[in-house]
Amino acid sequence: MAAEPLGISQIGLVARSPEGHAAKGMAIKGHEDLWVEIQAHTFRNWVNEHLRVVGAEVRDLAVDFGDGTRLCLLVEQLQKKKLRTNWIRRPMNQHHCLENVSAALTAIAEDGVKLVNIGNTDIVNGNLKLILGLIWSLIVRYQIGRSKFPPKKSMLSWLRAVLPECEVNNFTTDWNSGICLSALLEYCEPGLMPDWRHLNKYESIENCRRAMELARSRLGVPQVLQPEYLASPHLDELSGMTYLSYFMKESSPGTRATLRWVNSQIPDKKVKNFTTDWKDGSVLCSLTSSLGAQAKYQISSDTHVWEQNLNTGLEAGRKLGVEPILRAKDLLDPHVEHLGVMAYVANFQWIPPRPPATTMAQISSSSHTTRIYQQTTVKIDFLTDLDPKLISAEVIAPEGEKLDCRLLLNSTGGKAVFTPNRVGMHEINIYYDKDLVKGAPIHIRAMPELTNITYTGMEPCAVGSIVEVVVNSNTNGTGAGQVEVIAESPTGRLLDCPVSQKGGVFSATFQPDEPGEWSIQVRHSGNPIHEAPYTCFVFDPNGIKLLGIDTPAIPHSIHNFTLDATGTGGLGQITVDIVRDRQSMPHTIQKISDATYNVSLHTHKPGKYRIYVYFNGQQVKGSPFPLRVGTREQIRAERHNSAYTKAVNNNFQESMRSSHSSFTRVASPIRNFSSPILSQSPSPLHSPVYRASPLSSPTTGQMNGYTSARETSLRETNLRETNLRETQTERTERIHSYHSSSTMSPISIPVHHENGLLKIQSPLHSPGMRKSPSPLHSPLQRHSPSLHTSNYINSVDSSSSVKVLSSHLNKRKDSWENNDSHFPEGSKVFGKALQLIPLNRTSTLVLDTDAPLNQINVTVTPPSKSPIPVKMSRSNGQHVNIYFTATEIGEHLIDVKIKDHRINGAPFRSHAYNTQAIKVGKMPNGVVGQPVEFEIDGSSAGSGNLEILVNGGHVTSFVRNLGNQRFLASFVPHENLSHHVEMKFNGEPVPE
């Protein structure tokens, strides 16, 4: 066996190979001299970037690494520590050189770098290809980063993610033109190379030189590769990878740019790296959740929980369309390389953000009123795949009590069911993963039960009802003239009731016009029949008066007013509730006389209070009665402060929930009948159903603090919208207030007379025989005592249309608008597309300039930040037509430059809309005098004007903003005929 050559280490014996296979993976396909020259130049520059720190330099890789000193210095710089094996600073012979190289190779191998087919003699003897292979191994390990995936795959994955328009497939020819490099600079620092899309690919060397110089001066990327080499068709792959790795190593410009995007998506977390900050899975879950995938994580120090979190985040990413390139176990690895994680995360950047999961479910109610002790249902719809287990419900009663609520759900939605037990507004909150869903909260108003009056004699009826007295005789041949019926009012007036006969049955009718106890005399042949006279109690549901509410009350004091129920006749149950700003106010009731009560209210804050009065479960005419607390100036100031606070805190529901008051419930009988006439239960004010009646003429626009619905638009601020919520609801409640009618069933009273058995019937409310103050009456009767009928008529039909603007369109002033470099001053852009852009249709702008087309640069940037293709053509010499087609809803930024100078006013902001996306809810059949309501969903339509015309504008229509670009439209039909509803959005007909 031959003796071991002097100075050859064990590493040299194991790895040495004369074939130089350390260059495996760097296949040479012709032009070997050019390839070696470019790679040697690049690798030498890379080495010198590290050696420059210690004052060393390599001029020839094949020669200057021969003594091992520079190689040892390089390894120490890369590992940031001294070599464990002492090396000779001034080698005197070949043995010293071999020992130095062995020390460096040993340190490299111990740091996880696999050395295949290279030994110390290859370095000492100057085998350039093997030396290049060794340097490449160092670049991969210490600059690109070790990974379970080939470096080329990881680097390409990141580049494709951050440069989606460039279609990067390699590290050679794709970079020759300099366009991809310019795009990479723009990604790393937006605004650094904004014109990269318009570069001439045939000016490749100039493009490369300009981009590489900017990368060096602005981003700190060294020019280890010459622009001529980058532009060369013979650029070798490893040289390209070496240069580009400076953009994606740790703390590189590309890494910082990707981290900036991550932090912009999850501002509640501060992510500093792509290694340790991702181990517990919370960042990945938060990121995917911000894009709409809803990934829940647990906070724990247990690595098993971290792995579960990571798997949850990876699965959420898969749902968003991003396939994982790492496993949860890989991300848990303390030595995970940042590039693999960064390449995976970067793929999320261009996913259009999905709406939050809370907008993927919505709630609705077919009715916005109910009655206590009546099961009430709220519908829940899933607009996408959601986990029903994350749905929860909360029902808050008027006094702040939380009611039981059952959820009945399936994969597409379901319903929430509850039973109110208190009179007033009930707030229904539906949550998805503790966040309110779309449409929440819903307010459903619970009214009292329809109560029955305990009575003796004939069944009670309301003033104005038709009372029929039916007399049956078992004696044939009795004439009508022998039966006489007389009704005596409570004041002693006698009403003669004509009697008719048919088939032996006698009937007489009368219409009571006074509340109280009526006496019915029935005579046969002048003699009273047995048990006559009969009594019939008549009540007036609208006979309640409130005295002392016409003058404004003083804030923060006790205000007294009188409830006079003598006009009701004294039989029945009255429920009182006083409401301010969706809250029932505590108050006390003290009996003054049999039918008169003093009501004491503590006026906490200025504002408009409403006094709801119910009679036997029906809201009486004129209710809610308005009570003004404070001067108009105090009310406006209070409203402004309240609205401002809600807008700043963006937490309106929480502030409502925290301000629920306790209530006093008092039941006091007016008369000693079996049913108490007076009770109180709190009833919060508002309902989300707005049946608003206009209180202003089109010439005045506003009257008495009310705003007509045609003036309501999303141009108004949150303060304005808060004011409208109150005033429109006030009008709504006036319409609701007239639903007061009695529904009684016929009664039978057996009586006797001397000729046989007679029977009296009193069918009080059969459909064809009733005249009662019901809500089916003409709306001319539906006004508050302070309004005149003539005024109401004039205001009903005077407005012809309603216009609603669904988003702020006021132009925002950005920093560039103050730029004095706008050029040229005479150029301007005009056209409809500067305001609104129709979706999927060509939009046109006109640029007034005589500049050549090749000097004009127009960029249209949609919400997704991926610019839209733009075409230009010249017309009429001075005008340039600009064409583009929007495919996304939302704000578009239109930037116009001439000779790299923005024209005055650029960039312009416009909004894309889609009329086809307007969704109109089912329109119910109407009843004369009753509001007809239907919902309009414009959440997917974008910004613009919504115009509603009913019968060509001859019937007034109203629109209420429900939030989230949903509206409730209503109109009140006054004639029994078909009504035509026409809707336009930005002047375009809304599809039926």
What does this structure look like?
There is one protein chain. The longest helix has 20 residues, at 32-51. The N and C termini lie far apart (97 Å). Residues 1-29 and 645-823 have low confidence and may be disordered. Helices cover 24% and strands 26% of the residues. It has 992 residues and is α+β, with helices and mostly antiparallel strands. The protein contains 21 helices and 50 strands. It is elongated and about 150 Å long. 42% of the residues are buried. The strands form eleven sheets. Strands 2, 4, 5, 8, 9 and 10 form a six-stranded mixed beta sheet that branches. Strands 11, 13, 14, 17, 18 and 19 form a six-stranded mixed beta sheet that branches. A hairpin with a 2-residue loop joins strand 30 and strand 31.
Distance between the termini: 97 Å
Helix/strand/pairing category: alpha+beta
What is the helical fraction, as a range of percent? 10-25%
Shape: elongated
Provide the gyration radius in Å.
Answer: 43 Å
Short account of what is shown:
The chain has 992 residues and is α+β, with helices and mostly antiparallel strands.
Layout of secondary structure:
Blueprint: H1 10-15, H2 32-51, H3 61-64, H4 69-79, H5 94-110, H6 120-124, H7 128-145, H8 151-162, H9 179-188, H10 204-219, H11 227-230, H12 237-245, H13 253-265, H14 282-290, H15 303-319, H16 328-332, H17 338-346, E1 361-364, E2 369-371, E3 376-382, E4 391-396, E5 402-403, E6 406-410, E7 413-418, E8 424-432, E9 435-436, E10 442-447, E11 458-462, E12 467-473, E13 483-488, E14 494-497, E15 499-502, E16 505-510, E17 516-524, E18 527-528, E19 534-539, E20 545-547, E21 557-564, E22 574-580, E23 583-584, E24 587-593, E25 596-603, E26 607-615, E27 618-619, E28 625-629, H18 632-649, H19 652-658, E29 678-680, E30 702-703, E31 706-707, H20 718-736, E32 748-753, E33 756-761, H21 789-796, E34 802-805, E35 828-830, E36 836-838, E37 842-848, E38 856-861, E39 871-875, E40 879-885, E41 890-898, E42 901-902, E43 908-913, E44 919-920, E45 932-937, E46 945-950, E47 957-963, E48 966-971, E49 981-985, E50 988-989
Parallel strand pairs: 2-10, 11-19, 22-29, 36-43
Antiparallel strand pairs: 1-3, 3-7, 4-5, 4-8, 6-7, 8-9, 8-10, 12-16, 12-33, 13-14, 13-17, 15-16, 17-18, 17-19, 20-21, 21-25, 22-23, 22-26, 24-25, 26-27, 26-28, 30-31, 32-33, 34-46, 35-37, 37-40, 38-41, 39-40, 41-42, 41-43, 44-45, 45-48, 46-49, 47-48, 49-50
Helix pairs in contact: 2-7, 2-12, 4-5, 8-17, 9-10, 14-15, 18-20
